[in-house]
Amino acid sequence: MSTEKKLSKIDTLQAIRAFASIAVMLFHGTQIIHERLNYLFLNNFFIAGFSGVDIFFVLSGFIILYTSNSNSIDSSIFLKKRFIRIYPIYWLVTLLLVIAFFISPSTENAHKGDLYTILGSITLFPQKDYVIGVAWTLTYEVIFYLFFAFTYFRKPRYLFYGFTIWITSILITFFLKLDTNYHIFKTLLDPVILNFAFGCIIAFVYKRFTNETHGIWYFWIGLIFFTLSWLFYYQLKLDSSDLLDSDISRVYLFGLPAAVLIFGSLYLKNNVPKWLVYLGDASYSLYLVHGTVLSILIKIIIKFNLSSQFINFYGALSLFVTTLILSCCFYSFIEKNLIKLIKSYA
After folding, report:
1. Distance between alpha carbon 189 and the CA centroid of its chain, in Å?
2. Phi, psi (5° rounding) for residue 127?
């Protein structure tokens, strides 16, 4: 496979990552604007935007397995690279939010001043609350990285055996409705972990069928089913239904279509616009800071009595665009430079 062709395939995944992060931003942003400005953007159309997380998990499973070689790297090097990618910028944002809380404490964010919550957030240990709301997803990422490191780099087939045991345990726990009072076990047995397995499966298949003639059809099939799942879920919520609210529902509603879509995207030959690749690169920063940025913008709006200017489609849209721009600035000026600095000493 040529370098140019490989780069193009990575770019398609970055584009998908961009859309996933924006979907999550619109999901949380719609909630925040509704709670604080009493305006419901597009009648809550982005209520299924949480599915961006399922896309992230499938992407992680695919990228980690596809880019790893058990013969040329060991688990310690792998974990070091993952640590640098996840923790430094996450710690910085966590620290800033903790400092902001102690400067201006509030009952709503009292957990940000709790020592155990702070320590659990720093380590990404499974817990109920985190300083950064979306950090719970990073806990799953870290668990997957550890699992991958201690199976695949010993013997690749151990990854298969490990996932078989893990997924079987998850399904037994879910269908028998077994419960536990320990949050760590709830996390380890959450069906959403199946999304990582889907990613690993498509990496395994793609390595063996790199030049699949009809591979592009998987992209359109995945996109169609993902869209239909989104519309179906949206309609259920319009009807105030609590159906499909279980953790396993999001796996077959969004995780499976995402896996098919991502698999098909690997065969796309169209060039991806540079701005879309950039948004994919900036997706982690956007993911971490979008809620904070939007909350600050709304506080400024309320302080200057400008709420009436933003309780409409264009006002809300301007808040989302501004949040996106500021998050990208955070990526360009802070995340990129911080990672570059750490790598120079690593």
Report:
1. 19
2. -155, 175
Tally of domains within the chain: 1
The widest CA-to-CA distance across the chain, in whole angstroms, is 62
231-265 core/surface letters (b: 16 or more CB in 10 A; e: else): eebbebbeeeeeeeeeebebbebbbbbbbbbbbbb
Distance CA 167, CA 164 (A): 5
pLDDT of amino acid 177? 87
**For residues 202, 203, 205 and 211, what is the CA-based torsion angle, rounded to 10 degrees?**
110
Q: How many CA atoms lie within 13 A of 295 on its CB side?
A: 13
Q: Rounded to the nearest 10 degrees, what angle do helices 283-303 and 274-281 cross at?
A: 80
| C-alpha pair distances (Å), 196 with each of 61, 192, 279 | 4, 8, 23
Residue 131 main-chain phi, psi, to 5 deg: -60, -45
Q: How far apart are CA 247 and CA 255, in angstroms?
A: 11
User: What is the number of other CB atoms lying within 10 angstroms of the CB of residue 117?
Assistant: 18
* Angle (nearest 5°) at CA 266 between 282 and 200: 85
Look at residue 333 in the predicted model and tell me its pLDDT. 98
Structure tokens at 340: 């570059």
For residue 141, CA distances in Å to 58, 83, 264 come to 11, 11, 23
Residue range 103-160, pLDDT digits in tens: 999 888 899 999 999 999 999 999 999 999 999 999 999 999 999 999 999 999 999 9
Residue type, 158: Y
Global pTM? 0.95
Instruction: Report H helices in 126-215.
Output: 135-149, 156-175, 183-188, 194-208
Range of the structural domain that residue 166 is part of: 3-345
pLDDT tens column, 216-256: 899 999 999 999 999 999 999 999 888 888 889 999 999 99
